[in-house]
Amino acid sequence: MADDITPGESRGRVRHRTAQHRSWENMIGRATPGSAAQRNRPNYTGVTCAPEWRTFAGWWADMAIDREGNAYGSIGADGTARVIQGRYGDAGDYCRENVRWQTRGESARESNASRMLRTSGGLFAADVARENGIPRGRWGGRVALGWSIDEAVGLVARER
Length: 160
Fold this sequence. Notes:
Layout: H1 7-10, H2 19-30, H3 36-40, H4 56-63, E1 84-87, E2 99-102, H5 104-110, H6 112-116, H7 125-131, H8 136-144, H9 149-152
């Protein structure tokens, strides 16, 4: 497997890619001007990657262990594996200083949609609901019915 294959060049070839290689390919797609990711997702418009990251070998040299000391697949605080390559604050370019391995939950909390779902005290609604044993579907349905975030996740009693 060549280390300098871009996603467009690899189409049609049959090869077994690792999860890490797919993560790199996805990053290249998001950081390529004119790509579908940049056309369809405003938060990727203008995003680039470090020149040395245009090859898998260059990217992996920096990301096998991220700058926080986390390895791909290491276990996060929530007990799940870090398998998502995430930018700090879900913003900025892809480079060693701005990228880390995240669990799916950490990545979701940094997404633009999650930032809007906070309690009045600034806590992530999903975290509070999980601590209170309220499934995502239930508290999401409550919000859709007009409940406040605090009521939906069980921080305050619902007024009747």
